[in-house]
Predict the structure.
Amino acid sequence: MTQPSLRTPLARVRGLGPAKEGAHHFITQRVSALALIVLVPWMLLSLLSAVRGGYEDATAWIGTPFNAVLITLTVAASLYHMRLGMQVVIEDYIGRTTTRAVLLILNTFVCVFLFAVAAFSVLKIAG
């Protein structure tokens, strides 16, 4: 015999768990991982070929609009994926509510700051 569910009928229809977010976090982390599967190999192979030509060739490679956009997307997807992963670690392993909140805020600020620095650097070289 199965036990009756403690969830309300509305909660069962919406498919939301105790966190009230459903599978959103899980799906966004998987989508960012899929983007990284394509972007990271492109970035590594392109960077290796660009660096072989010296400083001028590397800056010219970054200065190309297509490459500048893909570099920015790679950095954005990487930092977003990292932020989501760190959020899970913080939520799972930090017990104190205040410490958890501070670390979650710090996690977001660090990722936004790193993206701003990377985007500024790409724009500076490309412009």
Remarks:
- Residues 97-126 form the longest helix (30 residues).
- The CA atoms of residues 97 and 103 lie 10 Å apart.
- The mean pLDDT is 89.
- The domain at 24-126 is CATH 1.20.1300.10 (3 helical TM bundles of succinate and fumarate reductases).
